[in-house]
Amino acid sequence: MRVLLRDVPSLTVTVFVMATISMNLLANKSISLPFSWLALDCGIIVSWLIFMCLDIVTRQFGPRAATLLSVAAIGVNLFMCAIYFVGSRIPGVWGESYVDGMEDVINTALDNTFGGTWYVLLGSSIAFLLSALVNNFSNWYIGVILKRKAEGNEHMTDSFMNFACRSWISTGLGQLVDNLAFALIVRRHFFGWTTLPCS
After folding, report:
1. How many Å apart are CA 49 and CA 61, to the nearest integer?
2. Most buried among 38, 63, 99, 157, using CB within 10 Å?
3. In this structure, how many other beta carbons lie within 10 angstroms of the beta carbon of residue 70?
4. What is the pTM (predicted TM-score) of this model?
């Protein structure tokens, strides 16, 4: 792990970890959609950054390295969640809660958003790890297949289109696993969503 964190560019690691933390916070806001069969949360607006970083690490260091980086990001995310939890329990008032007659309601809502709940953290960590595994290994194997098909053509074996193709497919698979696992673990079990929006 020490060698991996030393070799992976620090900007890639920073963007990856920050996107992981941001996705966890943004997942608290659901997106209002005109379809009853589709459920999304705002975490989806940064999830592409996570998968892009994983694809870059997978391409350069392999799927095992990208998975180890995902485990490290989960650890940092849980550490930051603990800090947010402590911050949410400190007596005081959030700046956004100064609305006449609504201070207590808004302040409590913000404390609960940042404080999080154990089952959301557990569900998001499991879903994130599963999606990282699916993304990393599918990206690697798709890359191997594409390189075999392009043998003899040096330009095609390491082209941008090769990387883009494997990234789009693996990101789609990873995002599907992440959303489905989180929905089935958290939204279905604890929030009482029906199976249709979860799937």
Report:
1. 18
2. 63
3. 23
4. 0.81
